[in-house]
Amino acid sequence: MTETSPAKTTTNPTAIAFVLTSAVWFALATTFGLIGAWYLIAPDFMANIEYIHFGRIRPMHTNGVLFGFVAPGLLAAAFYFLPRLLRVELYSQKLGVFTALYWNVTVGAGIIGISLGYTQAREYAELPWIVDVMLVIGFILIIYNLLMTIVRRKEPILYVSIWYVLAATILTAGTYCLGNVIWKPDTGALAGMPDAIILWFYGHNIFGLLLTPLGLAVAYYVLPIATRSPLYSHTLSLLGFWSLIIVYTHIGTHHLLQVPVPTWLKTISVVDSVAMVIPVMVVLINLWYTVKGKLGAIHADIGAKFVFTGTIFYFFVNIQGSMMALPVVQRITHFNNWVVGHAHIGVLGFAGVTTLGGLYFLLPRICGRDLHSRFLADLQYWLVLIGIAGFAVVLTVVGLIQGNAWYNGETVYRTLPEIQPYYILRAGLGVLIVTGAYLGLYNIIRTLYSRPGGSS
How far, CA to CA in Å, does 10 sit from each of 25, 89, 94, 362? Predict the structure, then answer.
């Protein structure tokens, strides 16, 4: 795997388009999340504005982060490094730019639809049916561009990052259709327990088979280049890939241990959830041994700094996930803010921080010049890091308070005053993340469009 200097890098309008997509939606989606956080402090906060009340702003936030910020940001990195690893130009930059524009229209239509009350009202599958169809078409366009690039490649060996990118896009196109019951446009859902099972098959795989493979693809590309070290083990990289694909697929049912799902399916979900330790540790051992003794190089490269921090969040979110899948643990942790904290560690902590790392790593190489401001990038790093780490602590504490209160038969009206201060602290931490998002948007736009020599 080789890396040319920024000065020799050719323009990549597709990657640029997805970079801008990710940066803009990061600011918008976190703003939606902050509004939702304030509703938890003051339920009447802007409650007279029906388009952004809590029942709508929450899915606007989650879908904005998932499909607006994280997925496009990781795809931006993929559209940058995949041609370089294959030693060939991207099959079609025009198709790539069109796909980015089309993706923005799709996500925007979904967010507006939810705001107007058009939703299928299923966890992580709230988008209206027509947007579901549009999103699948978007994935097909991406897959076609990537596959045609691979077909024309001059490099015979497919580096592991390419494996992860292809798996993420192809598997997600299929699981999205299945989980959103796309063949039933009137309801977008099945009936009874089959719908719950298929929903959580999709709900967990949208993270494990989209964000995780794309995030690991970026980590496998960025960290060896930033530290000028060969990948520790190609064999471990393939073991981590196949174990993730095999093990992760069936863990979604651990969200349904308290309901009448077949026991054999619950057992598989719990066993596979615990077995996730295997692909996680294989990947982390491989990456951490690759950068062993090179932390100075990681600190010097802001992109690698974000990505390496993302691997640490990856460790914590997966260890936590394996533990909370156990029925004895779920008695306390399920149906409360513990799960919300877990989701933030995974989506914002691992996938989101890795996304930012990928953006900052490729921007100088696309533009042929340094970031507009390394200081702003570092400031964003600390704002996001403090915010997400604070979320993890605060929401875990709130979840334990709620879980133990409910387990011991406490009434809701006695529990709410106990958790109110934590909600206030959560909103304050959200302000840090939102501030970081807007600083990053400014820094990225100035990097892309300011004249050379204006960096700081």
Answer: 26, 10, 15, 12
